[in-house]
């Protein structure tokens, strides 16, 4: 994977992934302020979780790497279990290898339906968060040697159109609830536009939380005190019951280093002029 982790904008904006595994809550519905509807149905394995979404992040990042290298990306992504665990900050243990297989099952078994158009067509029922997957496992060691996944067509279109956002590597260290809050901050707080402001009750739905308002408010208050999110600060006004994000201050560049870089460019330019100067 090249130096940036990437995630698609659609999954950042809408609660496609469950905050925790709940095999009883197999169906989920969400309606946004602009009328976008999201319906998710899952099998008895449970709905795909925010931790399972790390597999999506990994695959999207690999596709973006191919684009970065000016190669033709494909929906079929092949990788090793060890590389996935290493790149997403997980320990290469037997438990985590088994977790990969569980994540694959939940991603394949979670069906998405929405009225949001991708290009010129809607995502109809029957399309999973993965089209298909295969794997080879060493029975003696329990290691998943090879994994091959086929991403859904609509996600492929999103990545090809570069409708993705760069995710801070520290995102992978966050807890599931914090990851979802970071995703929303990433889509709704940018330097070129003012941050969106949300009523707390609607914000909880956008997060995908099923907790009662009092408990959710307590979590947001705690996050405002600790401010663990990379790149962003979360703000909550108790009187107005509003939530919004602000960007963290970025460190200023060292001007002396910039000058050195300019000198380096001038030096290379002078060398090139000497090398390319016609000789008699």
Query: How does the major sheet shape up?
Result: 4 strands, antiparallel
Our measurement of the CA-to-CA distance between the termini, rounded to an integer number of angstroms, reads 49 Å
Helix content: 25-40%
Structural class: alpha+beta
The quaternary state of the protein chains shown equals: single chain
Strand content: 15-25%
Indicate the overall shape.
globular
Biggest sheet strand line-up: 2-3-5-6
Count every beta strand, where a strand is a DSSP E run of 2 or more residues.
12
Give the rounded overall mean pLDDT.
Answer: 85
- SSE pattern, N- to C-terminal: EHEEHEHHEEEEHEHEHHEEH
Please give the radius of gyration in angstroms: 22 Å
The number of helical runs is 9
Q: Features of this protein?
A:
280 residues, alpha+beta, 4-stranded antiparallel sheet, 3-stranded antiparallel sheet, 39% helix, globular, disordered C terminus
Structure explained in plain terms:
It is a single chain. The protein is an alpha+beta fold and 280 residues long. It has helices spanning 9-13, 53-68, 81-87, 94-109, 153-160, 176-188, 200-207, 213-226, 255-276, and strands at 5-8, 27-31, 37-41, 76-79, 111-118, 121-128, 132-137, 144-150, 164-167, 198-199, 232-237, 242-247. It contains 9 helices and 12 strands. The strands form 4 sheets. It has a 4-stranded antiparallel sheet. The chain has a 3-stranded antiparallel sheet with strand order 4-8-7.
